[in-house]
Amino acid sequence: MVRSFCPKCGNDADVFYDNVCHQCFIGNKKLLGSPQIVYGRICPTCGSVFRKGRWQIGGKEEDTVNSFVKENLELNRDAKSVELVLTPKQLDYSRYKVHVEAKGEIKGAPIDAVIDTEVRISWETCDTCSRISGGYFEGIVQIRADKRLPTHEELKRCVAIAEGVAARSQEKGDKLAFIARTEELPEGIDIYVGLIKLGKQICRAVMDTFGGKITESPKLVGQKNGVDLYRITYALRLPEFVRGDIINVDGTVIEVQGCGKHVSGIELETGKRFMENFNDLMDVKKLSRRDDAVSAVLVADEGKTIQVLDPHTYETVTVRRPEFLSVEPGNEIKIVKTENGIFVLP
């Protein structure tokens, strides 16, 4: 059997790398290096991490500590397929010892390394938390309703929408897109926001759900580096009408089932579906609400018309038969009395 030996050290070898054995090839090569001490900045309030000149969303503290070490590791430029195992151990409130085990290869030769480094954390309040604690805000979203008070359910939904918009903006890295505070008032709700553009985004999201109109009122509050600084109040008016309202739209009586960008409902005289763009409605008047409906006896069904017993005057009134009616004469139905006459409700 022919014996193979390393021409550099003379030892027997079965595998060669650049014509020398593994030990000679690796020699003084280092897979990785690291500073003995690594420094990092974390916000104690929200866990944000200061990187590349700005505050960024953080994660679990140990994961953040490991990331500080990884960012400072110096890998051999020729190393391939490197696998790292980091084991952090907390020493005290602001210090961790991190044990790093690494495996990889250089030109096919396996190589490993073991190093230990210390991470020292500087706990600093980030810009966002500093502004929140100081009551900072750039805009106010005032949510009201046109010619009525907004319902509790509407305001609750609006707040949820606003919080969702702010959360999505922060997930995208916009740390200053926060809601500073929310104030409930008898006439509606005020949402204080950390960025002007967040206020506009919230208004758009609310209007996508409820419809409405918005006006902007800027106010000069100072200067910074020669640039004027403004706070903007967004006055958002929810539509006058809500589900269950009975309205007259250009002479047609509708029971509103939804009101956002479009008004949808049922034409009470015919029973047909109704849907129109809210901004296209010209002559609209509220007549009543479903809550005002009363019970009445269906006296007769004559095909195209029906006869209803008015529960107040006890007179028989003839009205057009709506498509949705399925009750037999002698039974009770729900009706609403308006200045436009009596209408059967679905």
Describe the protein in words.
This protein has helices at 22-26, 61-72, 127-133, 152-171, 196-210; strands at 32-33, 37-42, 49-51, 54-56, 74-75, 79-92, 95-106, 109-123, 139-145, 179-185, 188-193, 213-224, 227-238, 245-249, 252-259, 262-267, 273-277, 284-289, 294-301, 305-309, 316-320, 332-338, 341-344. The chain has a 5-stranded mixed β-sheet with strand order 10-11-9-13-12, covered by helices on one side. Helix 4 (152-171) packs across helix 5 (196-210). A hairpin with a 2-residue loop joins strand 6 (79-92) and strand 7 (95-106). It has 3 domains: 31-123, Sandwich (Immunoglobulin-like), CATH 2.60.40; 135-238; 245-344, no CATH class. The longest helix is centred in the middle third of the chain and has 20 residues, at 152-171. 25% of the residues are buried. The mean pLDDT is 86. The protein contains 5 helices and 23 strands. With 346 residues, it is an alpha+beta fold.
Order of secondary-structure elements: HEEEEHEEEEHEHEEHEEEEEEEEEEEE
Shape: elongated
Order of strands across the widest beta sheet? 10-11-9-13-12
**Structural class by helix and strand composition:** alpha+beta
Report low-confidence residues grouped into runs of 5 or more.
none
> What is the helical fraction, as a range of percent?
10-25%
In total, the number of domains comes to: 3
Gyration radius, rounded = 36 Å
Q: What's the N-to-C terminus distance?
A: 100 Å
What portion of the residues fall into strands of 2 or more residues? over 45%
How many strands?
A: 23
What is the helix tally? 5
Overall average residue pLDDT: 86
Largest sheet: 5 strands, mixed
